[in-house]
Amino acid sequence: MQVWRALRAVPGWIFPLAAGLVVLILPVLGADMATTRQIQLACILALVVSGLNLSLGYAGELALGQAAMYAAGAYTAGLLSQAGHTDILVQLAAAGAVALLVGIVTGIPGLRLGSWSLAMTSFFLVLLVPDVLAVFGGNTGGRNGLTGMAPPTLFGVELETDGFYYLVVVVVIGWFAVMRNLVTSRHGIAFRTLKQSPVLASSQGVSVFRMKLSGYAIGAFPAGLAGALFANTDLFISPEAFGFTFATAVLAACILGGAASVYGALIGAAVMQFGPNQSTAFQEYALLVYGGFLIAGGVLLGGGLTRLFRAGGRRLDRAAGLGSAPPARTDTGEVDVPRVDGAPLVVEGVRKAFGGNQALDGVDLRAEPGSVTALIGPNGSGKTTLLNMISGFYRCDAGRVVLGDTELQKMTSGRVARAGVTRTFQTPNIPEHVTVLEAVAAGRYSMDRASMASAVLRLPRFRKVAHADVVEAERALELVGMAHLRNEIATSLPLGMRRMLEVARSVVAAPRMLLFDEVASGLDEDEIERLGDVIRRLRSAGATVVLVEHNFRLVLDLADEIVVLAQGKVIASGPPEQVQRHPRVLREYLGVEAGDEDALLDEVNG
Ligand SMILES: Nc1ncnc2c1ncn2[C@@H]1O[C@H](COP(=O)(O)OP(=O)(O)OP(=O)(O)O)[C@@H](O)[C@H]1O
After folding, report:
1. Which of 199, 332, 564, 577 sits at a 20 to 30 Å CA gap from 454?
2. Considering the entire predicted model, what is its pTM?
């Protein structure tokens, strides 16, 4: 266990880098050519698979076009080589760029059409590869394949077998470093958030379409690089290498290795290359074997081989006393909520119908900065619909929603979030496989922008923003009394904690307005008390708080104004002492007949 503890103290990226360097020097260590060739092919396959990991495993887009991007990269390199441009760096750059372009051009219609369209578009793209190559047979050699390539060169020096091997391994190490830096950054968490729920992603200011397209197109890039490397391996390429069988092999390796992991692509590709691909009799049964791998990876392992490694790691952690039990809950005392630039919300004559169901029928509401406005009403009265209209998820049929001097009613939900509106969800919405700290920090996605390039290169700008993300997330966690849970997996928390996590996530971006949707349901007494305290501090800090809540006692305790909805209409509004005696509220919301109200109010007020 001492050894395990020592290993855990070393930064995680050292191990894959060390393994990569060992693989790099295998020819020096005496590995024969047959072995290095297999490793080279596994590395090339791993590049293609890693692109699918990014788009499918992280961004949640079932896009099977990697084989087509691979073909685009291979033929770009092949044609450049034929034309005398043998420099491998030029070929890699061109192949990566062409694959990226194919990704963008095919991704836009696929993603615009939504649902399964990208899966269909990318699938047909793979089926089209042989036909496209046949159409341009004069240049590509059609079904006979492309010949006449010259050996690759690097800065004018021809690369021998070993030299090319080194190059392939260096490209793979470089790409996996890029991929690791991307998925461990706030953009990686945004990809996971998108996979969990586009609604959640846009509520955090993520531009859903742009992010989906980024995941798909960036995933195309390593496939292009792989194509260029593959074309230079035997200096011959033909359409069969890029067909449906290859696409299935990529999917099988992705699922087997673990789609939502960086290094799963390497594991899946290695198993595929050193397993079934070794056998000459295999070609006949390729699809069957890949199908078997898909089932093994997806159904039996449920998360691929990397999941087994992670589970083993966690077991060793527990045995070594590392991160087993969370540290004891700390009492947080006073956590400052920095001054917030709250803005008044004005809702005027908002109407919304779903078919024949008039969910909102001319609703007016005003919520002031530095105050809590509670929205109450029976089930189905339109409270959540109103929150969805304010936060841009639904379009108003009529009416206006204005925050400060910004008209929100025509904005997308992402833009509303970027205008300073945050919210919680009736059912907590939290991405899988992220820690509590990461889930909360994700709420800052639209603040202090740091580009993907700066994340990949770990530029000072990115480091500064990442540091601020952690500091603010820790502060928000302390505010809700969850600092001790920062390293736990967020989705493993009980319901009450997940709700409080959403509160922390909505606070972390210094919002101008917070929308809390039934945030107290499922909370125990202590948690409700803490929630009340958090909301009061937010109010004192100047935020505009809108609270949809069934817990009438909490509403009376917190609200400065109460707005009562019934059947899509405001039936009463005003300060709590006025609203709680309103006859229609007593009848329609509390279900009390005139005469019984004093007894009921005594009970409610405790
Ligand atoms: N996406 C939708 N499609 C169709 N009908 C919807 C949709 N969203 C809400 N509705 C309908 O609009 C009405 C108002 O629903 P809403 O969820 O806003 O009520 P609510 O007051 O939040 O209720 P609850 O307290 O149960 O959450 C209901 O009749 C509901 O069935």
Report:
1. 199
2. 0.84
**Ligand 1: centre distance to CA 414 (Å):** 22
Phi, psi of 275 (to 5 degrees): -95, -110
Q: How much distance in Å is there from the Cα of 227 to the middle of ligand 1?
A: 51
Q: What is the ipTM of this complex?
A: 0.96
CA angle 218, 221, 226 (to 5 degrees): 145
Q: Are 360 and 401 a contacting pair, CB within 8 Å?
A: no
CATH number of the domain located at residue range(s) 345-431+494-604 in this protein: 3.40.50.300
Spell out, as residue ranges, where the chain has pLDDT lower than 50: 324, 327, 606
- CA 565 to ligand 1: nearest atom: 21
* Residue 358 Cα to ligand 1 middle (Å): 10
d(CA 99, CA 251): 18
**Whole-angstrom Cα distance, residue 273 to residue 226?**
15
CA nearest ligand 1 atom 2, residue: 354
Ligand 1 midpoint to CA 573 (Å): 21
Question: Looking at residue 306, what is its pLDDT?
Answer: 81
Question: What pLDDT, on a 0 to 100 scale, did the predictor assign at position 341?
Answer: 85
Q: 529-576: per-residue pLDDT in tens? A: 989 999 999 999 899 999 998 888 889 899 999 999 988 999 889 999
Kindly state if the Cβ of 357 falls inside 6 Å of ligand 1.
yes
370: left (phi over 0), alpha (psi -120 to 50) or beta: left
Strand segments, DSSP code E, in 371-478 are: 371-376, 398-403, 406-407, 421-423
Burial-class residue 126 by CB neighbours within 10 Å (0-12, 13-18, 19+): buried
Report d(CA 568, CA 590) in Å as an integer.
17
The residue to mutate among 347, 376, 385, having the most atoms of ligand 1 within 8 angstroms of its beta carbon, is 385
The DSSP symbol for 141 reads: -
Identify the three-state secondary structure at position 385.
Answer: helix
Domain residue spans in the chain?
A: 2-243, 345-431+494-604
